Amino acid sequence: MKLTPRAPEVKAIVEILQSDDYETPEAMAKAVIKEVAEILAMRETWYALVIKGGAKAVNFGPYASDAEVKQVAAKVAGAAPEFHIARMGGSGLLAARLEGYNKRKWTNFCATCTHAKDLHLTDGNSRARCALECSCQAYKDGG
């Protein structure tokens, strides 16, 4: 997988590496692995190569970019004549959008209610109330 680390993702790992909270290197390594897994689960876009072929078909992924999965698709085109590319969200993204997520203060989640900003309904060209009917006033008040 060809992955470009994003600044907030790097910052989260650096915080663990510079922390004195871990008694052993193994404990720190476990914390890093868990943090990376959560970060990757929160990525908005992944791609998969979906090979058609009934019950014996195998799908491959995730790939981090459209270009990467197209490179792989070109290589398998002769061996697997029926396939397509699927775009998918990270495994943690759906729950985070519905339940709220603001662990890292990422800009795509509302700082007030922690729901995804695009769940705030629009009122003309401006954002309005949260579609999940929480008590968030951030977008009603122009936030």
Structural class: alpha+beta
Which value, in Å, is the CA radius of gyration? Answer: 20 Å
Number of strands: 5
- Ranges where pLDDT stays below 50 over 5 or more residues in a row are none
Overall mean pLDDT score? 78
Instruction: Provide the β-strand percentage band.
Output: 15-25%
So what's the overall shape?
A: flat
Give the N-terminus to C-terminus distance in angstroms: 37 Å
Element string (H = helix, E = strand): HHEEHEHEE
For the report, how would you describe the main beta sheet? 3 strands, antiparallel
Helix content: 25-40%
Please explain how this structure is put together.
The protein is α+β, with helices and mostly antiparallel strands and 143 residues long. It has helices at residues 7-17, 25-41, 66-76, 93-99; strands at residues 46-51, 59-63, 83-88, 120-123, 126-130. The strands form two sheets. The protein has a three-stranded antiparallel beta sheet, covered by helices on one side. The chain has a two-stranded antiparallel sheet with strand order 4-5. A hairpin with a 7-residue loop joins strand 1 and strand 2. The two termini are 37 Å apart. The mean pLDDT is 78.
